[in-house]
Design brief:
363 residues; alpha/beta; Ubiquitin-like (UB roll); three-stranded mixed sheet; 14 helices; 42% helix; ribosomal large subunit binding
């Protein structure tokens, strides 16, 4: 799964990306420093892996991952190709979710492409460009489908209605992720692949003084997006970059303690991005490997097995399942089994977050 980091130039995108990933994106104090999108594979922090490692003592531990893309800064007119507009919009289209970085701090030494700090204006600039591109997409589809609807095609009529509602919503300057549909309409809407329909996480980039309690700019953002079906978190990208420069866990922990923080902000960001994508984790645990596997919430046991290998899903027979809390309580698979905490589940089983699973299959 892939999340794209977006925002106006010089709001802290690349600094944040560097903190998230071992891939080092260039970051500098001028617009369009990022031209080609940088890709980083980021581990999802999960304390449950440490618990399983302690009990199983495997040869290796493999966490779940999320791909993060640092996308070039956007300016007014991007929807018409200004700046790196067309490339920027194409990069976003390839992502499943958007991490929108907003500058919520003052610093005279860091230039702002719009001349002053105003996160709400910055948000609207990017929203407008994405909405304009979506308007273009919907207008083309509507023009085409109206011709089919005139012939009496029922499906075309339903599609035309969805397109018209979407068009009106966009013309009002609203993002389409706010729209709610019946199941049949949802399929038609999803087929549009609109930029403003993608789930979004707003990251308020603050200074050190505001990292614990926030500031007025952060509150403005929270108020503005409360009805937008989006998530908001706050962190200081420069602090995150400083933390990543420290070599040992103890050094990082000492630095966090001095700031009064429980954990790096990027840990919260990654977990929130995971939640935004409607993802969850199940585990396989053996002496060779303890591993976290990423699935969607609501996936069945065969679908979860298919993440390991398609043959596991095709030839699925059953799954042996221990809930994480039971595994933690009893300390091993054998003891959980003896306590009656290992269940045998079939094709209809909905996997729960944290399940430890072993699949039986036959191809």
């Amino acid at each position: 799964m892939k999340c794209g980091i977006v925002g106006l130039p010089n709001v802290g995108k690349s600094t944040l990306f560097n903190s998230l990933s071992s891939a080092k994106a260039q970051s500098a104090n001028y617009p369009f420093c990022t031209i080609e999108p940088n890709l980083g594979v980021v581990q999802v922090p999960d304390n449950r892996l440490a618990v399983l490692e302690k009990f199983v003592n495997p040869e290796r531990v493999v966490p779940a991952n999320v791909e993060i893309v640092d996308i070039a800064g956007l300016v007014k007119g991007a929807s018409k190709g200004e700046g790196l507009g067309n490339q920027f919009l194409a990069n976003i289209r390839e992502c499943q979710a958007i991490i929108h970085v907003l500058r919520c701090f003052e610093n005279d030494n860091i230039t702002h492409v719009e001349g002053n700090v105003n996160p709400m204006r910055d948000k609207e600039i990017i929203d407008t460009e994405l909405q304009l591109k979506d308007l273009e997409t919907v207008e083309k589809r509507l023009e085409k489908i109206k011709k089919q609807a005139k012939t009496g095609d029922k499906d075309a009529k339903i599609a035309a209605e969805v397109y018209e509602i979407t068009l009106k919503h966009l013309e009002e300057g609203k993002n389409t992720r706010q729209l709610e549909w019946a199941e049949a309409q949802q399929e038609i809407f999803d087929d549009l692949h609109l930029l403003t329909a993608k789930p979004v996480l707003y990251v308020c980039n603050v200074d050190e003084a505001s990292v614990k309690s926030g500031n007025d700019l952060v509150e403005q953002v929270k108020e503005a997006v409360k009805n937008e079906n989006a998530l908001v978190i706050m962190l200081a990208a420069q602090i995150e970059a400083d933390i990543m420069e420290l070599e040992t866990y103890d050094e990082r922990q000492m630095f966090l303690d001095e700031l009064g923080l429980d954990e790096p902000g990027v840990n919260r960001l990654i977990r929130t991005a995971y939640k935004l994508l409607n993802l969850q984790t199940y585990f396989t645990a053996g002496v060779k490997e303890v591993r976290a596997w990423t699935i969607h919430k609501g996936d069945t046991a065969p679908q979860a097995a298919g993440v390991i290998h398609s043959d596991f899903e095709k030839g699925f027979i059953r799954a042996e399942v221990i809930h994480f809390s039971d595994y933690e309580q009893y300390g091993s698979e054998s003891k959980a089994r003896e306590a009656g905490k290992l269940s045998i589940e079939g094709k209809e089983y909905i996997v729960q977050d944290g399940d430890i699973m072993h699949f039986r299959f036959n191809v």
